[in-house]
Sequence to fold (508 residues):
Amino acid sequence: MIRAHLTVDPHFAVGTIDRRLFGSFLEHLGRGIYDGIYEPAHPTADEDGFRSDVIELVRELGVTAVRYPGGNFVSGYRWEDGVGPREARPRRLDLAWHSTETNEVGLDEFATWLRKVGSELVYAVNLGTRGVQEALDVLEYANIAGGTTLADARVANGTAQPHGIRMWCLGNEMDGPWQLGHGTAQDYGRLASKTARAMRQIDPDLELVACGSSSAQMPTFGTWEREVLEETYDDVDFISCHAYYEPKGDDFGSFLASAVEMDRFIDSVVATADHVKAVRGSDKTMQISFDEWNVWYQSRYNEVDRITDPQSWPVAPRILEDSYSVMDAVVFGNLLISLIRHADRVTSASLAQLVNVIAPIMTEPGSHAWRQTTFFPFAVTSRLARGEALELRLECPTYSTALHGEVPLVDAVATHDRASGGTAVFLVNRSETTEAALEIDTRMLGAVSVHEAHTLADDDVHARNTKDDPERVGLVTNETVTIQDGTASVTLPPVSWTVITLRSEQAR
Ligand code: AHR
Fold:
């Protein structure tokens, strides 16, 4: 038995949790849009061709914002292809995913879908094959009420009210040699700065995101952020981070500690941004938009899924359709813990992605939709992580990993909502073999009672939900939780994710 001890004190707040931390990402990639959210012939399709069963699941997931339309896709995308009468829209090669883009869904349809879902649109502009003018055009089309050719075109296309998009990504992963239009950090930084300044001439209050590194393993990592921010510091509000994790062979010990790497990634980007701030003598603090994160079996994509035949450009191919295990979901839940404990600097994030493509929600055409294992930690964290993230004192044994060195066996973060007095504690046991007995010192919270306690675990850590067995894995109530004399006690199974909520007795 692992013995661990946690102290929760609401006086030690890290920062307020921005609801945008529970954002996601939908790209024109594989079956994310077509046969994902949009399937006009599906029995649950609504008047706009969107699957109602998927809308219900996205609502249940608690996604607060959705980044769109890419991803790598955006770096070759012409936004105007996706607006206006459907029958006149061109079919185009999508070079990023070696597919055919039919343009049946574009900006207006996607904004309509998001209104149904109740979530905010975060729009990425193409700074790969395009530049300042096209970014200005799409901003004018989307956000100006009327009276210009572009704004009136949106009205004529059926959307009378402007979309009011607040947050804009200036390109995607421009540090990656695979990206259309990839160049040096200076090239990109200057283009992003020019684009940002031009967009602010339309609306100074936009929130703008410059591209950081597409992973902490990029050879330019660190230097890229510094050089981009040297060009853009005064013009943007966020620098982005992207990170995907997968086990290397059967080194599950390292995989289970992926959040340690995410912590280090965030800390490094914060340090780099603050270096630029100090050199410039700026009083502005750069925020981080962690706008792609997940478990992704990228090795499988490269070995199995990748389409290369120059004559084959399929529509909505089944690619990047990873099936997630219990262990994947535990790692995933731990990544959410990492994001929350950096709430002071990470104020926006996007789970990549949302439907079918490395996604918490899967669909079959003409058939059902189901929740992957990763659905559960996301939905519960989005629902319960409210108010401020707290700095915790956690004492527990460590274990050695090949990739991250010596790491704690248990990880935790807590949130506290001053308004309601409610506290949520999110926990992970990374041990592959041993239960953890955790004691939580709750005395600084005053009189509290346990309200909810859910755990994701399974005797088979590789168990997953599938088309044929869609409810194999789910959350269970953790029956081991007790609270007495200011100490809550709970047992965390091996390879598990848990949430406990505590309700203030005074607030009842
Ligand atoms: O999410 C899949 C891809 O991963 C995105 O298109 C790209 O930005 C990243 O490399």
Notes: The chain has eleven helices and 26 strands. The domain at 2-9+389-507 is CATH 2.60.40.1180 (Immunoglobulin-like). The mean pLDDT is 97.
